[in-house]
Amino acid sequence: MVDPELQTEPSDHEELIAFLERDQLTADRMRAVPRAPLGRRLQLALWALRVFVIIVSAMVIYTFFSQLG
Amino acid sequence: MSVNAPPGDPCVTGGQAAVPLPPLSREDVARSRDRSRVHQARTANRRWYLLWLLVGPGILSMLGENDGPSMISYTTTGATYGVGFFLPFILITFAMAYVCQEMSMRIGAVTHRGYGQLVLQRYGRVWGWFAATDLLFTNLVTLIAEFVAIRIGLAYFHLGAGVAAVLGLALVVFTLAGGRYWRWERIVLGLAIFNGLFLVSALMVGPHWGTVGHAVLTFSPFPGGSFNELLLLVASTIGATVTPWMVFFQQSASADKGLTPRDLRQGRTDTVLGSVLAAVFGCGALLTGAALATHGGGHVQGLAGAGFPGALRALDGGGVGTVFALGLIEAGAVAVLTISASTAYAAGEAVGKASSFNSSVRGAILFYSANVAGALVAGAVILIPGAPLLSIALNANVLATVLLPVTLVFVIMLANDRQLMGRWVNSRLTNVLAGSIVAFVSVCGAAYGIDSFLRTVHLIHG
User: Fold this and answer.
1) How many angstroms separate the CA of residue A16 from the nearest CA in chain B?
2) I need a labelling partner for B301 at 20 to 30 A (CA). Which of B177, B361, B430, B446 fits?
């Protein structure tokens, strides 16, 4: 099924673009944003949180399977 | 987004005439058609029509999270403890959800990019892949629980697991047909409104409104009983309200819908509306469950075997049970759709491929495949006989609670990233609230995880 709203002519493009912000266009959205620098302390905190979450997740999963047994 | 262009600057300006027109994809055309209606409504000052056009991601993420496991969790809480502490606690958790989801909506509207894409590009592949892996894992577990909920609801009408699996999968495929975000959103919104069935069931059991008012105002009576069971219900109640998939979904859906900074007010209204509806319907499930509290509702596992709808039928001869069963089917079905969508967004964003309902299947093959694949696997799992239904449902929520802090920390970081967000960065109040939520969720998730583990390995007793 072809959506008639999506059938366009090249002459329509200017009008269509007018309703979008420039960085809403697919070509722009696919462009990578620059990397943000993460300070050493922040990296350490993020890794600590990550390890903490993995350990607690493992506990929850272990408990779940133990209860099944 | 200031990385590429000043936020809020529409392309629609004569000043850009000198710039050559970029190529338009199918996705751009579809989004532009939707935005043209928004533009006309705004120009004509048709406020209600404008709101109608712009609502969606907030209501869907909130009502999507009023899913099968959540409603079973609320009902279990009501059946175990009656009307008391957990009723106002649900209201607080939805206020927490609003704080988190408003940030997601705002980031999506300002940057026009999904959460997974931004974490990956801004903070590196390791964190991006961790985020995607967390999401895919919890989504798969939660999707299984959604199919379980549909199965419990259908079992009331003497329909089996096969029907549940086919129904869920057919819904996913049906809503994907058409290749428009707008169409997908409106179909799912139409289904999601039936989450109100839980309010209907609550009204049918006739709660004592004086007790309800007292509970809301005083947070009492405070639940007694096993500490571990209480922790499980606290953690699963949080997990029933704020989860990683909601963050992924609302940010990506806001970007896919084409929200811009000019739409933030409507985006907030959408999120508030979703929170209020979800809180009211969630309380409805708890009040329905509370009607069972005096009928052996504390025997949670027993209820899992019989099914809540069946237990409720015993109360009034069938009406409440039927409404509740239909509510469970709806809750599971809508969540299958929204969670599958969040999986698809995450998969596309993780590998830098097109991830939009506005793309064609050929143009976004990974997005569409991931949407269907999660539902396919989850639907297959519930066909396994003897699966521990209630345990899967409750633990899916707990797992979501445990993994949530990492997701929220990155949301807060993105929402404070001035280079990305410009003047739409978090206020100090939002940061204080969001930080407190991360701390609270971490403590609750960890308390349950550690306590349960220590009991399982017999290091503590009781």
Assistant:
1) 6
2) B446
Higher model confidence: residue A12 or residue B344? Answer: B344
Higher per-residue pLDDT: B298 or B10:
B298
Is omega for the bond preceding A37 within 30 degrees of 0, making it cis?
A: no
C-alpha–C-alpha distance, residues B240 and B398, integer Å: 8
Nearest chain A residue to B414 by CA: give it: A36
Contacts of B179 in chain A (CB under 8 A): 3
- Radius of gyration over every alpha carbon of chain A, rounded to an integer in angstroms: 24
CA of residue B266 relative to chain centroid, distance: 19
Q: How many beta-carbon pairs under 8 angstroms link A with B?
A: 163
What is the C-alpha separation between B436 and A50, in angstroms, rounded? 18
Strand partners, B203: none
CB contact under 8 A, A35 and B122: yes
Query: Is B258 within 8 Å of A24 when comparing Cβ atoms?
Result: yes
Classify the complex by whether its ipTM is higher than 0.95, answering yes or no: no
Q: What are phi and psi of B129, to 5 degrees?
A: -70, -35
pLDDT of amino acid B211 = 92
Do residues B299 and B143 make contact, with C-beta atoms less than 8 angstroms apart? no
Looking at the partner chain, which of A17, A23, A60 has a beta carbon nearest the beta carbon of B452? A60
Q: For chain B, how big is the Rg over CA atoms in Å?
A: 22
Using alpha carbons, list the distances in angstroms from residue B238 to B94, B139, B308, B345, B396: 9, 16, 21, 24, 12
DSSP B118-129: HHHHHH-HHHHH
Q: How far is B277 from chain A (nearest CA, A)?
A: 30
pLDDT at B4: 41
> Largest Cα–Cα distance of chain B, in whole Å?
75
Per-residue pLDDT, B276: 97
Q: What is the C-alpha separation between B458 and B462, in angstroms, rounded?
A: 10
| pLDDT average, residue stretch B323-336 | 95
Distant-in-sequence, close-in-space partners of B267: CB < 8 Å, separation ≥ 6: B54, B57, B58, B102, B105, B106, B109, B254, B259
Of B10, B180, B453, the CB nearest to A21: B10
Whether residue B260 and residue A49 make contact (CB cut-off 8 A), yes or no, is: no
How high is the pLDDT of residue B22?
73
Three-state DSSP state, B360 = coil
The whole-model pTM stands at 0.89
Q: Please, which residues have CB within 8 angstroms of residue B295's CB and are 6 or more apart in sequence?
A: B311, B314, B315
First to last CA, chain B: 54
| pLDDT at residue B307, rounded to an integer | 76
Confidence check: pLDDT of B186 > 60: yes
Which chain B residue has the Cα nearest residue A66?
B456
Instruction: List B10's β-bridge partners, or say none.
Output: A21
What CA–CA distances, in Å, run from B273 to B91, B95, B200? 13, 11, 19
